[in-house]
């Protein structure tokens, strides 16, 4: 999911029981996997103002890409090449992950609508769309076979887990899907991942006889190595690039079948492009930089690569020559919408009329969310289906912003932290005239006895998952829009990398009236994660303990030892994630863990807790 900052009132916390919150549930709850924020931020498509996925046309002269929840067509070669993009689809819902059929007639894609993600197909000859699946599950990453008569895709239908399927596809629609690898459960405990294996990121070999993909079969950490399998009956997978991927490897076999292109952070903090062979020989980096490059696709002739980068902070589409590295950004300076649109100008002020920043959500007359062309779009983790059809998507507006929406009635909601009342407006957007909305934030009335407060968030990861690349400057701008006075940027690992390690030497940033402190989250995963605020000298390593099936299996250093190390640097210590069950030190040792540090699923967690409870009662420790 995209980056967001929840605003917390640091010195004054008001807890109010609200029965209406009981109906609020997670987004795409049909996915039966733990830690949804990881696969939602890193794997499932999200609404962004910039391009998020791309595919070449069969002749290599055009690209189709997802942007703002629509599919767009733009010529990159020939007489039609330029900076004009044509909108191909606009929902209902949000359209992502296009793939072009070999004959050039169709584009298959996924549509997130009514809290499900289904497969759809667009006929480019008449711009008509056809729904291919109706599972109410999650289907993603469709890829045409070289013969155009089949697609490979990832689906949770029937299991709630991400599995790889192949199905026949003809003019009538999609045939019965066939699992490429039978679903199975792993015999090992996993951290952050389900006990059920997954198979994701499919890519066809040029002969159409095999698939390359990512699987975590018998892997404890990460989404797993890059593997291949022949589609003949009885075939078994063979993995050829072994590293700890994180949802985004997306291996792509070159048109000549000689190379595999993929995204990796191996030995780095950010995803860059790497190349290898189908035997996994000499994996070598293709690109370099302190930013992410993902969603890479080969051109049909294998001479170029299209990819999505957050080099500028927001997402951008680039095309790079494989030999030589010359590149150009594909920019849609002119957007030809498929239906009439007009701009809404939104102005945010405080009670004195001074321009301020805030969080804004805009829903057009088609019930879709819209944002400025350069905004960083975020999304809530849950919603109440009785009152909303989807999660709230929003962006941060700094004083004034312009949003292009379809004609008709638009709904605008604005927030500015917890000290101000939320504001709702409606606007009638008319052709040529557009609309203007003035939002004036008003402070909430507090009781006379209420003390002065500081609005703070003590657990922020500036860069961790999501699509964007944040800096202290962009983090401060987000904080001001959330009316935060103080932020602790808790630097932490994500898999084998620590994206914000460059800031780990501490320091204080003052920017526009708010303050950012550098902190650390230490993963003492058996005893609970610690927050270390204001380390005066150095980042504590190895930043892990009690990681099973690793060199750091031991629960030492325990939290007391970590706290002593932090106190020696003058830091404050507290918990950011307490342990998941009652810890009995006399019973639990590094040699005899009764349960995984984090149970792979809810059922195992309940069984584990019951088991510990019985053992403790028997031994009269509790």
Entry summary:
With 622 residues, the chain is mainly β. The longest helix is centred in the last third of the chain and has 18 residues, at 602-619.
Describe the structure using short key phrases.
622 residues; mainly beta; Neuraminidase; 7-stranded mixed sheet; 4 helices; 7% helix; globular
Q: For the residues shown, what is the average pLDDT? A: 89
Q: What would CATH call the homologous superfamily of the largest domain? A: TolB, C-terminal domain
Structural class: mainly beta
How much of the residues is beta strand, in percent? 35-45%
Q: Please estimate the helix content.
A: under 10%
CATH classification class of the largest domain: Mainly Beta
Cα Rg: 25 Å
Oligomer: single chain
Q: How many runs of DSSP E, i.e. beta strands?
A: 44
Low-confidence stretches: 1-21, 589-622
- Tell me which CATH architecture of the largest domain applies here: 6 Propeller
Largest sheet: 7 strands, mixed
Globally, the shape reads globular
Topology:
Layout: E1 25-26, H1 36-42, E2 51-56, E3 62-67, E4 70-75, E5 84-87, E6 94-100, E7 106-113, E8 116-123, E9 128-131, E10 139-144, E11 150-155, E12 163-170, E13 173-174, E14 178-179, E15 199-204, E16 210-215, E17 226-230, E18 238-241, E19 252-253, E20 260-264, E21 272-276, E22 284-285, E23 293-298, E24 304-309, E25 316-321, E26 327-330, E27 334-336, E28 341-349, E29 357-363, E30 369-370, E31 378-379, E32 382-383, E33 393-398, E34 400-406, E35 408-415, E36 423-429, E37 435-440, E38 456-460, H2 472-481, E39 486-491, E40 508-511, E41 514-524, E42 528-533, E43 544-545, H3 559-567, E44 572-578, H4 602-619
